[in-house]
Design goal:
five-stranded parallel sheet; FAD/NAD(P)-binding domain; seven-stranded mixed sheet; Enolase-like, domain 1; 22 strands; alpha/beta; 14 helices
Length: 467
């Protein structure tokens, strides 16, 4: 069987790329190692974590906010098994949706491990070890990433876990120690904290969400501390020991000899992810990787082997599902002779805690490092009528613009529904709008988006109206 394009990996990058290839008239095949389609994002990442985040937020609001709204709740109980069952149902529906899309677009799906025999021949090894082969004109590698689990942490999938196992805990733990204060650690930590677990976070850096704007880090830290999370910043984990019922985490203060242990029901390792290329047979075709195991690609996402491309978490850049999707579409359109474009500076990042964190463009720290002259406008959600009405007053919007041209350079938000609100900034920045452009757009009242307008006004001659 010969195809125009074969895609290895069915996560957001792989399956979206496959759909676009099929739309453009290419004979397309998709190879997936596991029984279900959707990759990490749909099965053990974005979708299930958001399902649990929403469920935990409902529970937290019922326990702490409903009474102020005049809603009495008696005998509130947590049914963790049902929460996990609902999450599983959401995952199942979403994965079946991808199966439907593959059939609709006449994409042939193979289940098994895809690997290179040569540049044009792909081997497929199924679960029973049977090997078949297909030929292709082009191949897209979209095999995603796996959690980093250093040997010293003794990852056992029982008491020392990653996000994969954390999503299936059906009995509320009394205590969880999380290694890493990045997106995954904070999202899952907030789930357990809202439900009533004691949560400790150990982070080597001097702040949480180290890659995001510093003001956002401060706002989020304040909010999570208020929720009950405990943080050990500038600390490192020197080892983890576990038994059948608990895990003991050995912690050392950075640049110090001070050490202590923390015992918990679970130790969640969330220090990042690595490009997953195991079993691909890259060596059979001479595909080059960098010092972190990521596949090297050129500006067209093509490897050093003509006709073989790589997208998503296996290449350099932020490990984001929507970034992978854009890259999948990019390669498909490139193969069809079109001239696609991706502006990596305008790929938004989101943390789905509550309040949410969302950002696009440059941070203030990056602009300082680059020597760019800029101006800043900020506006707190507590000054918005809509936020007071919903009791979501934590957070702020920060607008950064060029000091001379007024062009928007970065927008950073902590607050209610900022995962959705950020798209206003993305759209405007795509067309190189100014802070004044943002400020002059009429925003509906009362909405959370008014905070964007006010922050833009603050960046434009410091003339916010409601503060």
């Amino acid at each position: 069987m010969e195809y125009d394009v074969v895609i290895i990996g069915s996560g957001p990058g792989g399956y979206v790329g496959a759909i676009r290839c099929a739309q453009l008239g290419m004979k397309t095949a998709l190879i997936e190692k596991y029984d279900t389609l959707g990759g990490t994002c749909l099965n053990v990442g974005c979708i299930p974590s958001k399902a649990l985040l929403d469920s935990s937020e409902h529970f937290h609001n019922a326990a702490h906010k409903f009474e102020e709204h005049g809603i009495g709740v008696s005998n509130l109980k947590l049914n963790m098994k049902q929460m996990i069952a609902r999450k599983n149902s959401v995952v199942d529906q979403t994965c079946k949706g991808v199966e439907f899309l593959m059939k609709k677009n006449k994409i042939e799906v193979f289940h098994g491990i895809g690997s290179f025999k040569d540049a044009k021949t792909i081997l497929i090894t199924d679960s029973e070890g049977k090997v078949s082969e297909i030929t292709t004109k082009n191949t897209i590698i979209a095999t995603g990433s796996k959690p980093i689990t250093p040997p010293t942490f003794n990852y056992d999938k029982n008491r020392v876990i990653t996000s994969t196992e954390a999503l299936n805990i059906d009995k509320l733990p009394k205590k969880v120690v999380i290694i890493g204060a990045g997106v995954i650690g904070l999202e899952l930590g907030s789930v357990f904290c809202r439900l009533g677990s004691e949560v400790e976070v150990v982070e080597f850096q001097d702040r949480i969400l180290a890659g995001m704007d510093k003001d956002c880090s401060k706002e989020m830290m304040r909010s999570l501390k208020k929720l009950g999370m405990k943080f050990y910043l500038k600390h490192m984990v020197t080892g983890v020991k576990a038994n059948k019922s608990s895990a003991t985490v050995s912690i050392q203060k950075r640049d110090s000899e001070v050490t202590f242990d923390s015992k918990a029901d679970y130790c969640l390792v969330a220090i990042g992810r690595y490009a997953y290329t195991s079993g691909l047979g890259l060596e059979n075709v001479g595909i080059e990787v960098d010092d972190r195991g990521r596949i090297n690609v050129d500006k067209n996402l093509q490897t050093n082997v003509p006709g073989i491309y790589a997208i998503g978490d296996v290449v350099k850049g932020d490990m984001l599902a929507h970034k992978a999707e854009e890259e999948g579409v990019f390669v498909a359109e490139l193969l069809a002779g079109q001239h696609p474009h991706i502006d990596y500076n305008l790929i938004p990042g989101v943390v789905y805690t509550w309040p949410e964190v969302a950002a696009v463009g440059k941070t203030e720290e990056q602009l300082k490092a680059d020597g760019v002259k800029y101006k800043v406008g900020k506006f707190p959600f507590k000054a918005l009528g809509r936020a007071r009405a919903s009791m979501d007053t934590e957070g702020m919007v920060k607008v950064i613009a060029d000091a001379e041209t007024d062009e928007l350079l970065g927008v950073h938000m902590v607050g209610p529904r900022t995962a959705d609100v950020i798209m206003e900034a993305v759209a405007l920045m795509e067309f190189r709008a100014s802070a004044e452009d943002m400020a002059r757009i009429c925003h509906p009242h009362p909405t959370y988006t008014e905070a964007v307008k006010e922050a833009a006004l603050a960046a434009t001659e410091n003339r916010a109206l409601h503060i």
